[in-house]
Amino acid sequence: MINVTLKGGVVRQFEEGITPIEIAKSIGAGLAKSVCAATVDNKECDLRTSLKSDCELSLLTFDDEYGKWAFRHTCSHILAQAVKRLFPNTKLAIGPAIDNGFYYDFDTETVFTAEVLEKIEEEMRKIVKEDITLERFTMSRSEALDFFKNADEPYKVELIEDLPEGEEISFYKQGEFTDLCAGAHLMSTGSVKAFKLTSATGAYWRGDSKRKMLQRVYGTAFPKASMLEEHLTALEEAKKRDHNKLGRELELFTTSDLIGQGLPIMLPKGARMIQLLQRFVEDEEQRRGWQLTKTPFMAKSDLYKVSGHWDHYKDGMFVLGDEEKDDEVFALRPMTCPFQYQAYLNRSRSYRDLPLRYNETSTLFRNEASGEMHGLIRVRQFTISEGHLMCTPEQLEDEFRGCLELAIYMLKTLGLYEDVSYRFSQWDPKDREKYIGTDEQWDEAQGIMGKILDNLEIPYKIGIGEAAFYGPKLDIQIKNVHGKEDTLITIQVDQMLAEKFGMEYVDKDGTKKNPYIIHRTSIGCYERTLALLIEKYAGAFPLWLAPVQVKLLPIADRHLEFANQVKEKLEAVGMRVELDDRNEKIGYKIREARMQRVPYMLVIGDNEVADGTLSVRSRKEGDLGAVAVDKFIADALVEINTKAR
RNA sequence: GCUGAUGUGGCUCAAUGGCAGAGCAGCUCACUCGUAAUGAGCAGGUUGUCGGUUCGAUUCCGAUCAUCAGCUCCA
What we know:
Elements lengths: L1 E4 L5 E4 L5 H8 L1 H6 E6 L2 E3 L9 E7 L3 H22 L4 E2 L4 E2 L2 E7 L6 H17 L3 E6 L1 H10 L3 H8 L7 E6 L2 E4 L13 E11 L8 E10 L2 H17 L1 H7 L3 E2 L10 E2 L1 H20 L3 E2 L5 E3 H7 L1 H4 L6 E2 L9 E3 L4 H8 L11 E10 L15 E11 L4 H19 L5 E7 L12 H17 L4 E5 L8 E7 L5 E10 L2 H4 L4 E2 L5 E2 L2 E10 H12 L12 E5 L5 H13 L4 E3 L6 H10 L4 E5 L1 H6 L1 E6 L3 E7 H13 L4
Parallel strand pairs: 1-5, 16-20, 22-23, 29-30, 29-31
Antiparallel strand pairs: 1-2, 3-4, 3-5, 6-8, 7-8, 8-13, 9-10, 10-11, 12-13, 14-15, 17-19, 18-19, 20-21, 21-28, 22-24, 24-25, 25-28, 26-27, 31-32, 32-33
This protein binds one RNA strand through strand 12, strand 13, helix 8, strand 25 and strand 28.
């Protein structure tokens, strides 16, 4: 007999070898039906695992992260089984659960069009109805290899070949379908009550663009139809916030086939917002001891040869001229680093000059591959709140913290702070040619940065192979409305480029040393940040950022004179005001102003003209009634200056 | 760059191997109106671009450009 500690600290005795599913059944039929996976002594495991000794057991349902994972993973097996039934020649690759769903990669001649996906769904419904039991069993590595060689599943063979010798390999079998698989699964296909295949796309085998492109089917699954329905509705709602749609509707930006891909045109309202952000950033940076530089948009190839960009980044640059034919070749800058270094090199530096903080509102050009552009998030020309900070080793930690605090201040002001996560981006020693510097330099830089991050108690995950070619990064990540993650802000530690450029300072003892350099952005790229703001606020921006803050809505022509007086008054204090002087009904004018997400609509009629008031309508709270003009202005200015939402 | 889908007035969407249509937006006129759409009229298109097949192409075929979903890459 063994003692099993259940939820709430209840200890119960069971026969040795009992499984979590049996324990769930002993507790209740309802739980046995809804349980998806388990943890034993906080280790995730399958419901079929036999328990050999005293342990702590949690039974996980769909409400638990890992339960969800097991549920959706099982659905990916159902998908694979259905595909194999319909298209027996299909070769299977991998099929994991992911955020909000699952996918499975297939190699097949059949193109998975929408109609084919419908057929596959139909077959999946049959498999669910058949309520097939999933059986877990194991094989040795060599048996497993033979099994998949016989089954003519080359991708599975490759996966097993990569596993260490002597490893016991687990399988799950459901009816005629058997798949290689670690991790937990449901007991039977019948539990997967609601699912949907959402899309089919291409995906490289093992994420390697040199290898074959497979077909990836994405789907999602829930225990109840109502939950699926809710999820799909939420996706539809999210689409309405998509900056690429909303930003165009609100006339913040547009694109032109004649100008080209990844080159958005900022329309007056979008340009105004970027100007507001830029002024805010430059002022705040100045307050924090940053000095503005203004450096050229292009340079001779020589500069990039010193920095290493020519060797490591040339494909990503717009090169002007032909290296073979021309005496001099120029390139548009993809980064500001080497330009600001030339500012540092303007004269000899002493330790007294450090830390030296250079910022710049810097437009960059990157020749992104054609399939990678997306709205304002991924573009070929963008403007970044750039900065490079030269300091001594002793100053590094404090200065790094200062950069991080600035970034956090920006995020909090924008209201994005709660939405970000941190990634410590490290190099990949297996991919040596992507980086400059020695192993020792990388170990040192990453060691220092790791220590700083730990001291600052930042909760980060590690991203191997995500470093810049010259050093590790702290990336502040954010997800867009579709759940896709991008880097919003980055802070990097670099101890290599100073040496390459001969950047030195004279230390107290009279010796020359290379400074550490922190590369950082405070608010990120204005285009990308704007995109995230559009999605965050669904276009209803905080008052300080709203391109139009107030719309004046006179009821009839005779109110125009007063409306114009109010307009002048508001503009005199710097407010952004529009006057809707068309011959339209007030309801119509309000409707339009609301669709433009204007924060305050001011209705002006006979009463207002007589009393010198404004009938204030807030986009959030609706009709607020009459307010004296001066009071409205005073309140609005407070709201703008506190950057309150 | 790769896989797949899409491309029809400013926007949302119809239609067809034989004169391209609607709603919204726009313009004009009337209405001067109190918190999410007043009515009437007018105008707006080389069906992304280039080429091919055809008596005839917006429709079929090819190329190209752009957009979307994803992969790879990346701020």
